[in-house]
């Protein structure tokens, strides 16, 4: 048993026109044609890899300036910080007096 009954909206479905607020006399529209393709005829992933090989390379290479330069800059800062931290925690840094904790 359901605690409440499912409420069906009184909004009109497709192929009708009205204002749907209190208008119960819904008239069917004429001259509307809908086309669809059978799901058995669709090939959504047809040539996906062969098309990406050229088109994807072109799109990525055109955007490389916007992501490669910031990535290289960020990675260089990261690698410098790792090397500097390793040096600070080494015996050479303590002997040089830079690693006073």
Helix-strand pattern: EEHH
| Annotation, overall tally of beta strands | 2
Counted by DSSP, the helix tally is 2
Distance between the termini: 71 Å
Structural category: mainly alpha
Please estimate the helix content: 40-55%
Average per-residue pLDDT, rounded, comes to 77
Briefly, what is this?
This protein has 101 residues and is mainly α.
Task: Explain what this protein looks like in three dimensions.
The protein is mostly helical and 101 residues long. The radius of gyration is 33 Å and the shape is elongated. The relative contact order is 0.05.
Record the SSE blueprint.
Layout: E1 16-17, E2 27-28, H1 48-88, H2 91-96
Antiparallel strand pairs: 1-2
Notable features of this structure?
47% helix, two-stranded antiparallel sheet, 2 helices, single chain, 101 residues, mainly alpha
């Amino acid at each position: 048993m359901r605690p409440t009954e499912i409420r069906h909206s009184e909004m009109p479905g497709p192929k009708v026109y009205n204002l749907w607020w209190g208008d119960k006399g819904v008239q069917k529209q004429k001259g509307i044609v809908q086309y669809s393709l059978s799901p058995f005829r669709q090939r959504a992933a047809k040539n996906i890899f062969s098309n990406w090989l050229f088109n994807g390379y072109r799109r990525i290479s055109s955007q490389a300036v916007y992501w490669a330069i910031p990535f290289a800059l960020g990675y260089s800062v990261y690698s410098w910080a790792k090397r500097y931290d390793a040096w600070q925690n080494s015996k050479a840094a303590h002997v040089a007096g830079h690693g006073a904790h």
